[in-house]
Design a protein that fits this description.
Chain lengths: 427, 422
């Protein structure tokens, strides 16, 4: 029997697995498929638009106390939130994929959101960004040259430059031939990133970029600058072009998120933690004492039982697949059928406007937990003595609207793991 | 088309959220323009294959190797590989099946015919001239790693020859050997029997047929049906009586459990009983170990052992039990391959138009093996065609994990692949 079974291979599950493995627990991560991070811009968004805010908040860590009391961040002391973010930043540095807050800020408490260009040319507030995105900070004065590749879908430099221009940022666009990156007729961002792991291809690209870039310009590229060799690829390109280079995350599959996933997964493997995809939880059993005994996953025949001392639910929200619903409007949590705060009337899920400034009520719903991150009944009693939850599955926030999705993942993943490590289930 | 089993596969395409994660992990789409990737060939093209529309927007789905990496990574549970297999069957029904695919699909027949005079058959097939002819006439790639017929008899020849030495016990297990063990690699079956008996199990080897996978992957569903139904008749009674049916060929066990019933619409009680009775051998051994019943009287084997869990194995979704069991053996420095696929994917890499693709796909695995250094003398993998491909791509001998386990019990010589008399 292992100590901890994590269900879900998104950021919250992986961070929890990391924390628990570091505390010498035996851990396994199972997931239905790969998700979440593969769609993600690869940035840590702590908080940009708290409820009722008029615009982007500068210092998200100053705003936590003003969040509603049911918000996941409010379950924690602020010092723990800072510590979790700092630990994440230190871990990414150790993994060779360093994440930093805004330039110059080394004290997290006072560091500010930075604005980075989105693939549509909007300004995207971000708290921690990987090194490859920092030169895109819209607070910097240098004009931007946005370079795309003919035939690469979902990345249109002219659109990005035009929209940035409308926001008052100096940007122009250029196209390079697809053949510069790949002999393929068609390839997606992951294939192209892999192609740029090859130094020879980077040299070809650098020559063209150097020719295009005007004096004092910084160069924005779709996020394809290397996959396994990303740090070297970025350094190479900057050095050969002689201008700051920044990546703009693309529509899925999103390479910066995939790099983070791969780096974490590899590190976990070194810590003895396997991440197993293709394992869909289809059942579980609990004993009379309110403990989960095992979780079953679907196989080619009989279900496979996973027995652990503790279980962490990190399956995500509506987006990640942690909840499902049917045409009657019934919503349920897919593994343990935990009580949900999602409105059970479908008509109450959405506001009349898709992009309503207050977000959508359905996104706010989820699994309610106590301060130890244990799912609870409406009465406040834990549902199971050895079950915890973290990440998008938690109730109380609208992570899309707030831009808090990955911040909540990192912070609650670590926090839940900490609770598990010191819980009776383990000790 | 809208059969019962279609309902378990077809509607999953509506779950597709177009995230392209599958395309990013598909080993074939990574190396060739001829295949646009799982999302396009699967859930997307499927829209054009339904409701009386022309059968397939194009035939690129033929380049899907069936490795199922896409199913493993899809966050939405889309059964992409199964959609593709059905699309191939539709193309086969429209256009007929090329001779080459008929030949490759008839693994059992080939095995039988070659076994009549194996040395002659090996010579006839494996000389350079015949390989060129096979390529020109049938499109079987001349370099592809075709197996050799066993020259010391089939597995069942051996099994029958030791009737009086078989262990008798209250604990019994049914062994499914599959065609490869029967005709090409009987030593795998001998190693398996040695391990079963060492753990106190009496082995039953009932008459059995090819599982039908080669035909399923070449779109010959009708012929596969016959084989599956034969197996159902021959093995069904054992399943009904509660015996475990354990196989050493991971693609055969996968076919009996899931692929055949799903693709061929076999959902009766007997099919379900068979599905639930079938185990891959390491899946079964892990169960034994977890019950505290696996013998661990291992001899030390000092070696660096790169292990590749084949894509067919991962499609069982049972983790990597061979890793778990082999890691109990003292001295073995197991190195786990994370390569997606060796490239061969059953008979895929034998086809002349796909040989190059299969070698490029396999490069991920071959280079992993090379990176483990010069001390590596053998590799391990649970699937026969993958082992042949691994040997072809690395020039190192490859062994089934059951051979390694039998060797650790002191029952088997890894080099000569023979049992050690005790
Ligand atoms: S991974 Fe699944 S959901 Fe995503 S595009 Fe492929 S089939 Fe669709
Ligand atoms: S089965 Fe393998 S080759 Fe076929 S689409 Fe899926 S990942 Fe690609």
């Amino acid at each position: 029997m292992i100590d901890l079974l994590v269900i879900g291979a998104g950021l919250s599950g992986l961070m929890a697995a990391y924390h628990a493995a570091k505390a010498s627990l035996s851990v396994r991560v199972i997931a239905k498929g790969l998700g979440a991070l593969h769609w993600d811009a690869g940035t840590i968004d702590v908080l940009a638009y708290p409820p009722d805010s008029a615009g982007v908040v500068n210092r998200p860590l100053d705003q936590l106390a003003a969040l509603p009391p049911t918000h996941p961040y409010r379950l924690l002391d602020e010092a723990d939130i800072h510590a979790a973010l700092e630990r994440f930043a230190a871990l990414t540095a150790e993994l060779g994929l360093p994440y930093r807050p805004a330039a110059g800020a080394d004290d997290f408490v006072v560091s500010e959101n930075i604005l980075l260009p989105s693939p549509l040319g909007a300004a995207r507030p971000v708290f921690l960004a990987p090194a490859s995105q920092h030169a895109g900070d819209l607070g910097r004065p240098e004009p931007m040259l946005i370079v795309g590749f003919e035939g690469l879908r979902d990345f249109y430099p002219a659109l990005i430059a035009e929209n940035l221009g409308k926001l008052g940022y100096a940007a122009r666009a250029a196209f390079l031939p697809f053949a510069l990156l790949s002999e393929r007729r068609d390839a997606n961002t992951v294939h192209l990133a892999h192609a740029l792991d090859d130094p020879a291809r980077r040299r070809n690209l650098a020559v063209e970029l150097k020719r295009l870039a005007g004096p004092g310009e910084r160069v924005g590229l779709p996020a394809i600058v290397g996959l396994d060799e990303h740090p070297a690829a970025l350094a190479d390109l900057e050095q050969q072009v002689g201008a700051p280079i920044f990546e703009i995350p693309t529509l899925p599959p999103s390479v910066p998120g995939i790099r983070l996933y791969q780096a974490l997964r590899r590190h976990l493997l070194q810590l003895g933690v396997r991440v197993e995809a293709g394992m869909e939880a289809v059942g579980f059993s609990s004993d009379g004492g309110g403990n989960i005994q095992w979780v079953e996953t679907a196989t080619s025949a009989r279900p496979l039982k996973h027995r652990a001392r503790a279980y962490l639910l990190a399956t995500g929200g509506i987006l990640g697949g942690g909840f499902d619903s049917d045409h009657t409007g019934r919503v349920w949590e897919v593994v343990f059928d935990l009580p949900l705060t999602v409105p059970q009337q479908r008509s109450q899920w959405f506001r009349p406007l898709f992009l309503h400034p207050d977000g959508q009520p359905v996104n706010r719903g989820g699994v309610r937990v106590n301060r130890r991150f244990q799912p609870v009944h409406p009465s406040g009693e834990p549902v199971y003595a050895n079950l915890w939850a973290a990440g998008g599955v938690l109730a109380g926030s609208d992570p899309i609207r707030e831009r808090s999705l990955t911040g909540i993942d990192v912070v609650t993943g670590m926090a839940a793991a900490k609770q598990i490590v010191s819980s009776q289930a383990i000790t | 088309m809208f059969t019962e089993s279609w309902l378990s596969v077809g509607p999953t395409l509506d779950e597709c959220i177009k995230c392209n994660i599958c395309t990013s992990y598909c080993p074939v789409a990574a190396v060739t323009d001829l295949f646009p990737g799982p999302k396009y060939a699967g859930p997307q093209a499927q829209r054009f294959r339904e409701n009386g529309q022309p059968h397939s927007p194009d035939h690129s789905v033929d380049y899907c190797s069936g490795c199922r990496v896409c199913n493993e990574v899809c966050p939405s549970g889309v059964k992409i590989a199964e959609l593709n297999a059905r699309a191939r069957a539709q193309i086969a029904a429209d256009q007929g099946i090329p001779l080459r695919n008929r030949v490759l699909g008839r693994n059992e027949l080939l095995g039988k015919v070659g076994s009549i005079a194996p040395s002659l058959a090996n010579f006839s097939l494996h000389n350079p001239v015949s390989r060129v002819v096979a390529e020109k006439v049938m499109g079987i790639a001349r370099e592809a790693p075709l197996p050799r017929w066993s020259t010391d008899g089939t597995f069942v020849d051996w099994w029958n020859s030791r009737e009086d030495q078989r262990l008798q016990s209250d604990k019994k297990v049914v062994y499914f050997h599959g065609c490869a063990t029967m005709y090409y690699e009987p030593f795998i079956g001998r190693a398996a029997v040695a391990v079963f008996e060492h753990n106190g199990y009496e082995v039953i080897v009932p008459p059995q047929n090819c599982c039908g996978l080669p035909m399923l992957s070449n779109g010959e569903f009708k012929a596969a049906e016959k084989l599956y139904d034969n197996n159902l008749r021959k093995l069904g009674p054992y399943a009904g009586d509660g015996f475990d049916i354990v196989g050493t060929s991971t693609s055969c066990t996968l076919t009996l459990k899931e692929e055949a019933p799903e693709l061929l619409d076999r959902h009766g009680e007997d099919a379900l009983a068979l599905k639930m009775a079938v185990w891959d051998i390491f899946e079964w051994l892990r169960e034994l170990h977890e019950a505290g019943e696996l013998r661990t009287d291992f001899e030390r084997i000092d070696m660096v052992l790169p292990y590749h869990a084949p894509c067919q194995y991962r499609a069982h979704r049972v983790g990597k039990p061979a890793m778990e069991i082999l890691s109990l053996i003292p001295g073995i420095d197991l190195r786990e391959s994370e390569a997606r696929c060796c490239g061969i994917a059953g008979t895929y890499g034998y086809k002349v138009e796909k040989y190059q693709i299969s070698m490029e796909v396999g490069e991920e695995l071959f280079s992993f093996v090379r990176e483990q250094g010069d001390e590596v003398e053998i590799t391990a993998c649970d699937s026969e065609t993958c082992r042949w491909q691994l040997e072809h791509g690395t020039d190192l001998p490859s062994r089934h994990p059951i051979e390694i386990l039998a060797a650790a019990y002191g029952l088997y010589d890894l080099e000569s692949r023979t049992l050690i008399a005790r």
